[in-house]
Amino acid sequence: MPIYPTQAQQASLEALSWLTGAWRGHKGLDEIDEYWSYPAHGLMMGMFRWVREEKPWFTEHVTITQEPEGLILRIKHFNPGLVGWEEKEESVKFCAVELEPARAVFYRLNPDKPDLWMLYEHLEPGTLHSYFAQEGKEVAPEDKFVYRRFSL
């Protein structure tokens, strides 16, 4: 039995409005930022930046779209200079499988890879946690991305 569901859950994009805003944190000595637009017209847009030794290490462009099968999260990764990791027409794709007022669980839609879930949690005011969970593996505290809300 998987640790989280694997079937898409029908929900409105507005259920993720708590994710909206600017978030900043650290992974060890590295800086991490994540930014989310408000849900509108069936779309939320996100950006992620990882800075290592005061230089951009990589970025991500992320979307969550309202689709007939449910909420779909897509990620495209880029090295500095906007050099993409994925092929032109490809992205890493997840579907929402569990949504609560301050928690979202997305399941990776890739039959060639082991089960992987991406979680966002807004469990305390002004704090956002995001992390990946894999079947049969414990998520160590240092594997979580912990952000604090900040103003631009």
Short description:
The chain has 152 residues and is an all-beta fold.
The separation of the N and C termini measures 43 Å
Question: Low-confidence stretches at least 5 residues in length (pLDDT < 50)?
Answer: none
Instruction: Give the strand line-up of the largest sheet.
Output: 1-2-3-4-5-7-8-9-10-11
Helix content: under 10%
Organism: Calidithermus terrae
Protein name: DUF6265 domain-containing protein
InterPro entries: DUF6265
Domain DUF6265: 17-132
Keywords:
single chain; about 150 residues; mainly beta; Lipocalin; ten-stranded antiparallel barrel; about 55% strand
List the helices and strands and how they pair.
Blueprint: E1 21-27, E2 30-36, E3 43-52, E4 55-67, E5 70-79, E6 83-84, E7 92-100, E8 103-108, E9 116-121, E10 127-134, E11 145-150
Antiparallel strand pairs: 1-2, 1-11, 2-3, 3-4, 4-5, 5-6, 5-7, 7-8, 8-9, 9-10, 10-11
Protein name: DUF6265 domain-containing protein
Domain DUF6265: 17-132
Pfam families: DUF6265
